[in-house]
């Protein structure tokens, strides 16, 4: 064989060697893939057994990512998102995986949907930036602009990271502006208009940005960048806005620094709470909501911060379903085990339910309950709270004045399910106070008028749980329910049973039993009670004496053995401990419908250690029984109550008085008590002329009302500058502090009848046509809520005069009453008439769900309506009354006769001629016709009630009837109103009375003749 020729044997051996090497290299990959697939199978089984296994979902997604199973990973992510909200990191991983294979329009739309779902779970700046950039890459500029505006609204006020969003949005608008400019080409008129419009958008963005305090924003660079888009430089007021935002940033900087520091979860959460409390003082709801969003993103499993957030949005944004409902839903998704959050969500669903969509509302409420009770509860009290929220909703759906068998059956079935569920997973300790069966019994007795059903619930359910038959509170509530809706016979039986079963508060039961017999019983039943109570107290006192002796003996044994007295609890302490354990649910056995692992914090680098994030509400004290007006004193005594019964045999007081002790020792001679000075007393010591106190008021000192109204008269205290500044801020927040400028009085008008949700931005545009406006002061109450009136200040007198012409202008659905400003007497009055208006009707008794359009449709067929006004509360709910104005009195009277006492939406209405001056008499007359009101009569008495300020007449009169002055028979006014026959009868009656009068001489003759 020639040198250099190929050797087939060597080649074959080389191929085998290389093949073996390749197998060795691929073997670890195959083993790793097999391990990953085995891991996927194991985790999938665990999730199938417990869908709430949070860590299992995360590990399954990671394993599928490593295997490259995109379709399976997508299914795993969808399944996890149905149970838990995903963190921003999980959403970004999902979106980036989908972007790798995105090619068609349908796949792009799927990624858009993922972005929309992601930004709803938690507030995250990076998610919004990625969303904007993705939309920009799709080429749809209008859609990109819409996403950018949403991003500015959601995270544009984020102090720490909001600058990124502003930069990205401005970048998009600048690119659009650059694309409109074509160098070397003369633009057309339309192109010039488009360029000018785009330039205005960029300018508007810069104006908005300088008003937001942003930490990483350089003010000089922002103004320099903005000056490129403003001819002649930025506007002057932008420098002022930027300065204000920088000052606001300085106030927030300490809190932001503390949030950045490496500290524990508890300390960081405390910083968030302090930060939120400080921003609330500035009356900036958007900034407060932004902070709450940051807090719940870092502490998504803390139900406490979620509860604070939900309470805030419900109070601050009441009526805005697009704000309240998403927050409530997210709170329950993050902390499904919280009974309070489940209750808030169910309440919010009811608040924004739409008429005609009852089935959809019921499905949402039921879904919220199922999510709560199916999450693996660790506390029976939380389960009880969730079930109670659901049962209250079902009770509200029952229309008792209509056929309601179906709704009542649903309520009963749900109540029975609630009792069985709590008993199954938590035992009798789950509902220690028996809230659910007690609520059920009350509904059956009070609304369904079924005392038999209520009695069965108490006997078969309540009294057989948690030793309730020994609880005096339970017996008293049962007795009061029976007495209100049951029979006297059953009530007496309950008193007898309670007297036999109760040991601790027998005196309370006996007192209530005695009053019952005094009010309803006979001599025989009263005697029977006395015998029963006497025999029972003999047994109870004997038992108490035995317990006291046994307790003393045990204490003596422990003392002789040298052990500490408190080392071993006595029977009394044991009884007290049992009572406390029955009144609180702090120590409860873990029982869960499903196995639950303790999830870690999602979206936070700091994770809770040794805590599951569940806060138990305090259930202190026993349930007070319901009582009628007669049994209001049947309530059990407070903790530490001691009976007035004589002490048991052998009882000794621990402290004995010293020998010779006398309590009734007379005071020494000349002793004088601290008698109050007589009226008109003046101190003899007067301060010297020019005396000034050098003592500054303490921190938190509040000035008087007079000083608030007249700031120039406020005394100067150099050491109290800071408290006064805080006081001024508080006054400004409530709309109280005003500047005393006589020139402004000439240019001010008074606005009233404002909608309670109207603010400065809605009022000023309406009156700008009259002239330049200097200020608008909306008067607010102590909770910073509008009172419905305010003061509008123009820069000129002519503007104020023109503003008066806009009286009755409709703003936000209500006519605004405009009147001159009166700074001296404050005689501003609303424009509603106070006398009788014959062309206007007053309608009362309307159903609360009727709107103005509904009332108008009912009254329009009887006459043309000029104006209609439905009286509402602050929250916009109807008061059930309405004013309807017509062109003339004849039409109003015709409509009144046609519609009075008619039935409208299931309720009988009263229609009257509007007369606010006769309001009191109208409300007192039955039937609603007006006229003089009859004398009010006290219930249970035939005598008329005495009016206010009148002295009541005694039972006997010591003045002789002959001497008493006779009242005139008929007044001329009343005589004209009566018929001639009535006047004649009354005249003859008066003459007979005059003839029957006797003088003193007549009386003397009568006595002498006898």
UniProtKB/TrEMBL annotation:
Source superkingdom: Eukaryota
Keyword DNA-binding: no
Annotated Basic residues bias: 562-577
Biased composition (Polar residues): 971-993
Residue ranges of every copy of the RRM domain listed in the record: 747-823, 839-916
N-terminal signal peptide: none
GO CC, any one term: nucleus
CDD domains: RRM1_SART3 (cd12391)
Record localization: Nucleus
Biased composition (Acidic residues): 1-10, 18-32
Pro residues composition-biased segments: 635-700
Regions of compositional bias (Basic and acidic residues) in chain numbering: 718-727, 994-1010
PROSITE patterns: RRM
Keyword field: mRNA processing, mRNA splicing, Nucleus, Repeat, RNA-binding
Alphabetical list of SMART domains matching this protein: HAT (SM00386), RRM (SM00360)
GO biological-process terms attached to the record: mRNA processing; RNA splicing
Protein name: RRM domain-containing protein
Organism from which the protein derives: Petrolisthes cinctipes (Flat porcelain crab)
């Amino acid at each position: 064989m020639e040198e250099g020729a190929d050797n087939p044997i060597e080649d074959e051996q080389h191929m085998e060697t290389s093949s073996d090497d390749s197998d060795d290299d691929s073997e670890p990959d195959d083993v790793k893939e097999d391990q990953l697939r085995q891991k996927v199978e194991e985790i999938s089984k665990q999730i199938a057994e417990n869908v709430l296994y949070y860590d299992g979902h995360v590990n399954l997604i990671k394993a599928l990512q490593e295997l490259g199973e995109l379709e399976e990973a997508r299914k795993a992510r969808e399944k996890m998102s149905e149970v838990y909200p995903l963190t921003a990191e999980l959403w970004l991983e999902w979106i980036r995986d989908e972007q790798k294979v995105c090619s068609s329009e349908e796949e792009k739309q799927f990624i858009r949907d993922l972005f929309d779902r992601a930004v709803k779970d938690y507030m995250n700046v990076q998610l919004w930036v990625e969303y904007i950039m993705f939309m920009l890459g799709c080429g749809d500029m209008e859609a990109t602009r819409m996403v950018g505006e949403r991003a500015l609204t959601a995270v544009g006020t984020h102090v720490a990271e909001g600058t990124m969003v502003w930069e990205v949005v401005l970048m998009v608008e600048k690119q659009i502006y650059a694309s409109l400019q074509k160098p070397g080409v003369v633009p057309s008129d339309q192109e010039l208009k488009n360029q000018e419009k785009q330039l205005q958008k960029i300018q508007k963005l810069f104006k908005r940005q300088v008003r937001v305090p942003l930490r990483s924003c350089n003010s000089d660079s922002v103004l320099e960048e903005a000056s490129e888009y403003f001819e002649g430089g930025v506007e002057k007021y932008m420098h002022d806005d930027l300065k204000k935002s920088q000052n606001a940033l300085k106030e927030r900087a300490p809190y932001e620094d503390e949030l950045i520091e490496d500290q524990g979860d508890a300390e960081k959460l405390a910083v968030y709470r302090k930060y939120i409390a400080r921003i609330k003082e500035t009356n900036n709801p958007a900034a407060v909501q932004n902070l709450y969003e940051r807090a719940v993103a870092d502490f998504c499993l803390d139900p406490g911060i979620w509860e604070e957030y939900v309470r805030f949005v419900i109070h601050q944004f009441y009526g805005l379903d697009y704000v309240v409902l998403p927050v409530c839903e997210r709170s329950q998704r993050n902390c499904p085990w919280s009974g309070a959050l489940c209750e808030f969500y169910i309440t919010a669903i009811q608040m924004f339910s739409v008429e005609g969509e009852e089935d959809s509302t019921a499905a949402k409420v039921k879904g919220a309950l199922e999510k709560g009770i199916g999450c693996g509860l660790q506390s029976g009290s939380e389960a009880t709270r969730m079930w109670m929220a659901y049962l209250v909703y079902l009770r509200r759906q029952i229309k008792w004045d209509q056929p309601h068998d179906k709704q009542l059956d649903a309520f009963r079935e749900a109540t029975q399910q609630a009792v069985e569920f709590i008993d199954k997973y938590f035992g009798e300790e789950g509902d220690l106070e028996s809230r659910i069966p007690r609520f059920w019994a009350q509904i059956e007795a009070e609304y369904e008028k079924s005392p038999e059903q209520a009695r069965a619930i108490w006997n078969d359910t309540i009294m057989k749980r948690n030793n309730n038959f020994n609880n005096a509170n339970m017996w008293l509530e049962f007795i009061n329910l029976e007495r209100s809706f049951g029979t006297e016979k059953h009530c007496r039986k309950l008193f007898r049973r309670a007297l036999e079963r109760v040991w601790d508060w027998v005196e309370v039961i006996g007192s209530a039993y005695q009053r019952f017999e005094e009010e309803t019983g006979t001599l025989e039943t009263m005697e029977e009670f006395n015998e029963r109570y006497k025999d029972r107290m003999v047994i109870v006192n004997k038992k108490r004496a035995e317990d006291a002796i046994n307790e003393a003996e045990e204490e003596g044994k422990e003392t002789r053995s040298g052990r500490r007295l408190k080392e071993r609890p006595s029977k009394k302490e044991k009884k007290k401990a049992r009572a406390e354990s029955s009144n609180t649910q702090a120590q409860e056995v873990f029982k869960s419908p499903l196995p639950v692992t303790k999830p870690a914090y999602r979206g936070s680098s700091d994770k809770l250690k040794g805590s599951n994030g569940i806060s138990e509400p305090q259930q202190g004290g026993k349930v007070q029984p319901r009582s009628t007006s007669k049994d209001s004193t049947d309530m059990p005594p407070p903790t530490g109550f001691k009976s007035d019964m004589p002490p048991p045999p052998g009882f000794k007081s621990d402290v004995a008085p010293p020998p010779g002790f006398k309590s009734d020792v007379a005071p020494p001679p000349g002793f004088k008590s601290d008698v109050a000075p007589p009226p008109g007393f003046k101190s003899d010591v007067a301060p010297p002329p020019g005396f000034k106190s050098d003592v500054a008021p303490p921190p938190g000192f509040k000035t008087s009302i007079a000083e608030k109204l007249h700031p120039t008269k406020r005394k100067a205290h150099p050491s109290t500058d800071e408290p006064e500044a805080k006081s001024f801020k508080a006054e400004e927040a409530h709309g109280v502090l005003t500047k005393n400028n006589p020139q402004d009085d000439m240019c001010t008008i008074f606005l009233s009848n404002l909608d309670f949700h109207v603010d400065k931005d809605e009022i000023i545009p309406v009156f700008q046509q009259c002239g330049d406006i200097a200020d608008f002061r909306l008067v607010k109450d102590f909770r910073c809520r509008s009172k419905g009136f305010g003061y509008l200040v123009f820069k000129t007198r002519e503007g104020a005069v023109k503003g008066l012409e806009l009286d009755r202008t409709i703003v936000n659905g209500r006519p605004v009453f405009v009147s001159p400003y009166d700074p001296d007497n404050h005689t501003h009055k609303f424009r509603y008439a106070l006398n009788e208006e014959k062309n206007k009707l007053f309608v009362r008794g309307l159903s609360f769900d009727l709107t103005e359009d509904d009332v108008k449709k009912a009254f329009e067929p009887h006459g043309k309506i000029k104006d209609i006004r439905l009286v509402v509360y602050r929250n916009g709910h109807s008061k059930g009354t309405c004013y309807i104005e017509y062109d003339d009195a004849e039409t109003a009277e015709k409509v009144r006769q046609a519609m009075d006492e008619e039935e409208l939406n299931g309720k009988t209405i009263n229609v009257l001629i509007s007369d606010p001056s006769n309001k009191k008499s109208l409300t007192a007359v039955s039937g609603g016709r007006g006229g003089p009101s009859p004398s009010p009569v006290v219930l249970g008495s035939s005598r008329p009630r005495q009016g206010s300020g009148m002295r009541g007449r005694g039972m006997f009169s010591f003045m002789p009837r002959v001497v008493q002055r006779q009242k005139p028979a008929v007044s001329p006014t009343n005589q004209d109103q009566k018929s001639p026959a009535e006047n004649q009868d009354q005249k003859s009656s008066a003459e007979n009375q005059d003839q029957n009068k006797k003088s003193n001489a007549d009386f003397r003759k009568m006595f002498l003749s006898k």
